[in-house]
Design brief:
The complex is a heterodimer.
Chain A lengths: L1 E7 L1 E3 L20 E3 L3 H15 L1 E8 L5 H10 L3 E5 L9 H14 L5 E5 L10 H8 L4 E11 L3 E8 L2 E8 L2 E5 L11 H8 L5 E2 L19 E6 L8 E4 L3 H17 L10
Parallel strand pairs in A: 1-4, 1-6, 4-5, 5-11, 6-10, 7-10
Antiparallel strand pairs in A: 2-3, 7-8, 8-9
Chain B lengths: L7 E6 L2 E2 L2 E2 L1 H12 L6 E9 L4 H9 L4 E6 L8 H15 L3 E5 L4 H12 L2 E6 L1 E4 L6 E7 L4 E6 L6 E5 L16 E4 L11 E8 L12 E5 L10 H10 L2 E4 L1 H6 L19 E5 L5 H7 L4 E6 L12 E4 L2 H22 L1
Parallel strand pairs in B: 1-4, 1-6, 4-5, 5-12, 6-11, 7-11, 14-15, 14-16, 16-17, 17-18
Antiparallel strand pairs in B: 2-3, 8-9, 9-10
Helix pairs in contact in B: 3-4, 5-8
The chains are: A alpha/beta, B alpha/beta.
């Protein structure tokens, strides 16, 4: 039986978000919190391994108390255990402190064979926490995994998506991986799953429970600091042409080609 | 006065494949050069390889490095975390760089966070701006976050090195000066204690796909407006004509019409090509987040109110099945004249 850890993050739901045309920023009012969409692929990977290899899946999240909803949803999908890391001291953590905190919690949950992380979160978009956890736990790491071909308690054989192709990588276990969307289609929770998830107790851990070095957690433990935040204006003042008739289309095509020429954007044209 | 003993080092992590340097290695030198305020700083490039010609290594100097740290070992043939981390940790401990920049490639995005956790450096991902603050001498790193809706400026006050990744293509390759002088330092390291727990058994290239969207100068992408899978050929033809790569918006990938490696946007790839052409893409916030740093954006959509036009440099309101053939015809005409003229 494999013991699998899936760290997840709760993020604001942004799929139907509208932009404020005045400021060019996201209208955040009334945004719901959801499981980071890319973490669903990590969860699905774990759940499939549970079906094929038998596995015990522990899902962990750091965040405010309402991140329990995300964990509850993961349990409804079929994960076995959940842990919430929530404490004032964890606030303001950068990716370094977040990776440290999650890795301490993972140590606390006992032995494991595999850690599966999403590629990155859709809010912070750094993709740094998965590799960071692997480093703190001194694990081998394979990122951008698109397929697990073989897995045993001793080794795993996976496909890693890289520029222009993929690598076939063999690794010792225990192992940490980050997965890409290609790996599987995430399932939806079932009614039965949701019912079962309701009765599972989710412990809430703070720095003491995970025996964290207080200098390494939260804002205090973060090497990086945000100095300022700006809202960039995303709009560009471009030409807009309407092309309905054949004549208008010819005109638009000519104008467009002129634009491409003036900006040296036709330099890579294929000769044939 | 220049204190030779206490030169501050700005590092870039060069990348190579089979003994050939990747363009990102030179782009990083352009970023690094901007961060050298005076002669108390030097620009260094770190290169890990199995085997590489010294002329190839020298290119790093020609493109701007003052010093190259070269580590050659059979364990470094493919990128694997264990030997890379072992080498870089030892090198960093010895030379104590002030700043270290890598490209946001599959390698850079993997090694940098692992290394930063290991050596307790401060790391910022996907920076679009880097500068040294005149007063404090600290690296100021600017990056878009929350789908490009905010730009955050980040610094690392106390931990070293100050680490960043920058996107490929986010800067032009600097001019090459073959007479530039610099030193190549061979860093010898004992690998006997380095345990490599992962092995790359083989690399399988995508044969049909052409250039990847992250490295292409031109990306032509299709969205829901293409209506069915077979229509995607018009996108491929335009991409092929312009010498570009094919991209797609999320709905197409979710339908299984196009592979994930082509997905542009928040849950796909963030790209900075010279030219991005969006065909039948409405421009959701998620999609726009992926193309914010494209240099030129062209949009073709039949809905004049499509969000994509808000961010376009040139937009055409047209049915793409009518307009793209006309555009392709005109482009080919232009190209044929061009080659005839030569």
């Amino acid at each position: 039986m494999l013991r699998i850890i899936v760290p997840i993050k709760q993020v604001p739901e942004t799929s139907n978000v509208k932009m404020d045309p005045e400021t060019g920023t996201m209208i955040r009012l009334g945004l719901e919190a959801i499981i980071n969409p890319l973490d669903l692929y990590a969860l699905e990977t774990a759940l499939r391994l549970k079906q094929t290899h038998q596995a015990h899946i522990i899902v962990i999240s750091m965040g405010p108390l309402n991140a329990e909803d995300a964990l509850r949803e993961a349990l409804a999908l079929g994960c076995d255990e959940a842990v919430l890391l929530s404490h004032r001291a964890f606030r303001g953590a950068d990716t370094w402190a977040t990776s440290y905190t999650l890795s301490q919690a993972i140590k606390k949950t006992g032995n494991f064979d595999l850690i599966i992380c999403g590629e990155r979160a859709t809010d912070g978009e750094t993709g740094q926490v998965g590799p960071g956890i692997a480093a703190f736990l001194n694990l081998p790491l394979v990122t951008y995994v698109r397929r697990i071909s073989e897995i045993t308690p001793a080794f795993a054989c996976v496909e890693r998506l890289v520029e222009g192709g993929f690598e076939v990588v063999r690794s010792e276990m225990p192992l940490a991986i980050t997965v890409v969307k290609e790996i599987a289609n995430p399932r939806l929770p079932t009614l039965r799953g949701m019912k079962a998830a309701k009765v599972i107790e989710i412990p809430i851990w703070g720095p003491e429970e995970i025996e964290a070095n207080p200098d390494y957690v939260g804002l205090n433990g973060s090497p990086t600091r945000v100095v300022k935040i700006q809202s960039p204006k995303v709009t560009r003042s471009g030409t807009l042409m309407s092309a309905k008739s054949k004549e208008e289309m010819d005109q638009a095509a000519d104008k467009l080609i002129s634009y491409l020429r003036e900006n040296n954007l036709l330099n890579w044209m294929n000769a044939k | 006065m220049i204190d030779k003993q206490n030169l501050k080092e700005i590092w870039t992590l060069a990348e190579q494949k089979k003994g050939k340097l990747n363009d990102v290695s030179f782009e990083l030198l352009a970023w690094g050069r901007r961060l050298i305020p005076d002669e108390n700083y030097i620009l260094c490039s770190v290169l890990l390889s199995n085997e590489i010609d010294i002329e190839e290594v020298h290119k790093l100097i020609e493109y701007g490095a003052d010093r190259v740290y070269l580590i050659m070992n059979v364990n470094l043939e493919n990128f694997c975390v264990d030997p890379y981390v072992a080498v870089l940790t030892e090198l960093i401990e010895k030379h104590k760089p002030d700043v270290m920049i890598a490209s946001a490639t599959s390698t850079g995005r993997t090694i940098m966070p692992y290394l930063s956790a290991r050596i307790h450096g401060g790391l910022t991902a996907d920076c679009t701006g880097l500068e040294i603050d005149n007063e404090s001498g600290l690296l100021l790193q600017t990056r878009p976050a929350i789908g490009g809706n905010i730009l955050a400026t980040i610094k690392t006050p106390f931990h070293r090195p100050q680490m960043s990744t920058v996107r490929p293509k986010s800067i032009s390759i600097p001019l090459r000066t073959s007479s530039r002088l610099g030193e190549i330092i061979h860093f010898n390291m004992d690998f006997t204690a380095v345990k490599n727990r992962t092995q790359v058994e083989k690399f399988i290239p995508f044969t049909e796909e052409g250039p990847s969207i992250e490295s292409a100068n031109v990306v032509v992408a299709g969205g829901k407006g293409i209506k069915n899978k077979n229509n995607f050929i018009v996108i491929e033809e335009l991409a092929d004509c312009l010498g570009g790569a094919v991209g797609s918006s999320r709905p197409l990938v979710d339908q299984g019409w196009t592979p994930y490696s082509t997905q542009v946007g928040l849950s796909g790839k963030t790209i900075s090509p010279e030219l991005y052409i969006a065909c039948g893409i409405s421009g959701t916030v998620q999609h726009l987040a992926g193309i914010q740093t494209a240099h030129h954006i062209i949009a073709i959509n039949n809905d004049p109110n499509a969000q994509i036009f808000q961010v376009s440099d040139f937009g055409v309101v047209a049915d793409l099945f009518d307009f793209l053939p006309v555009l392709l015809y005109r482009l080919r005409e232009f190209r044929d004249n061009l080659f005839l003229a030569k």
